[in-house]
Description:
single chain, alpha/beta, Rossmann fold, Structural Genomics Hypothetical 15.5 Kd Protein In mrcA-pckA Intergenic Region, Chain A, 3 domains, 5-stranded mixed β-sheet, 18 helices, 13 strands, 45% helix, globular
Amino acid sequence: MNNENALAELSRGVVDIVSREDLLKKLSSGKKLRVKFGADPTSRDLHIGHSVVLSKLRQFQDLGHTVVLIIGDFTAQVGDPSGRDSTRPMIDHETVARNAETYTQQAFKVLDKEKTEIRFNSEWLKAFTGDQSKGVSDFINVAKSVTISRLLEREDFKTRMAAGTPVSLLEILYPVFQGYDSVAVKADIELGGADQIFNLLMGRDLQKIYSQEPQVVMTMPLLVGTDGVKKMSKSYGNYVALNDEPQEMFGKMMSVSDELMYKYYELLTSENLEEVKKAHPMEAKKRLAMLMVEKYHRSEDAQLSRQNFEQIFSRKEIPADIETFRVERAGKLSYILVASGLCKGMNEARRQITQGAVRLDGEKVSDDIIFEPKDCVVQVGRRQFKKLTA
C-alpha cells in the first residue's frame, strides 16, 4: 500500500487529525512509527468502546508499525476529568493493580501481540513527580512552561466552573501527566477518543519542551453506551466488556435501540450500512450481536447465543441448561432469590419482586410470598433463571 492510500485508510472514521500533512510525512519517512494509546485501569474490563480505537491501532500494526499500549496505573489514581461533570473518585493502588492484570489479555483480542509494546506509566511518572539527584523533579521544570490559562481552556473545566462544580488541582494536572507519557515513550502518533483531544495535544506541547518532534494526534468517535444516553464507560455501567460471556454479550447488544444499533454497525464493523438498513431491524440487531460474539469468542458461541436468545425471548421458552437449586424448607421468596444466587442481597431481591421482574413458571410475582418447596423455574429479569427443586 502506497503512502497516500495508507493515509486514506487510516483517516477513515477519524474525527480529528493534527495534522494530516504531518501524518503523511511520518508515513513517508520509512521509519517504523511508535503509535501510542493509553488506558487507565479503573475497572477490570476493556469494553467495545475501546475497540474503536484498538481497531485503528491494529491498522497501523498491519502496516508494520509498533503500538505502545500504556496501562495508566499511575494516572488511574489521579482521575481523568475528560467529559465528566464531577470529580472521579480516586482509586487505591491495590485496586488499580488488580484491574490491570487482565488489560493486556483483553487488548490482544484486537491487537497483534508481536507488534505491541506494553508499558506502565508509573515507570516514569513516579520519577517525574519525585525528587531527582539534580535537585528538582522534571515535573517542576515542566510546570514552569505550562500555563494555567492553557490548562483552563478545557471545555469540561469551563462548564463545571460555570456551574459552580469543584475542579480539583489534581484534575487540572492530569493532562500534564498524560502528556508526559508521550515524552517518555517518544510517541510519533497518539490515538484516543474525541473527548481526549486536549490531553493528546498536551503531549505535543510537552514533546516540544523536550525537543522531540511533536506527535500526530488522531481522535476517534465516542461510542454511546447501551443506555443510548452517555458515552460507553465502565463508570456508568452502560458497557459491553470484551470479556463478557458470549450470551451476556449477545443479550447486551440486543438491548440497544434500533438507532444506536446502526451507529454500532458503523463504528464497530466493516459491514455496508446501506445493505444493513434493508434488513428487518430485529434481524439486523441479531446479526450485529453475532458479529460481536464471533469477534471476541467463537462463531460456535455466536450461534449458540442466538439460539438461546430466541428460545428465551422469541418463543418464550426456558433454556435447557439452567442450574438447579434445592429448596429445603419454606421461606420468603426474597430469601430464596439470595440463597440461589439470583440476587446479591435482600434489598435487591425485594426490589426485583416489587418491580415485577420475578416470575415463577412464567407467572409474574409482585409480593414477597412464602415459597413452599416445589419443582419450578424462577426467573429474575430477562436473562437469569434457576430451576428450583424440593
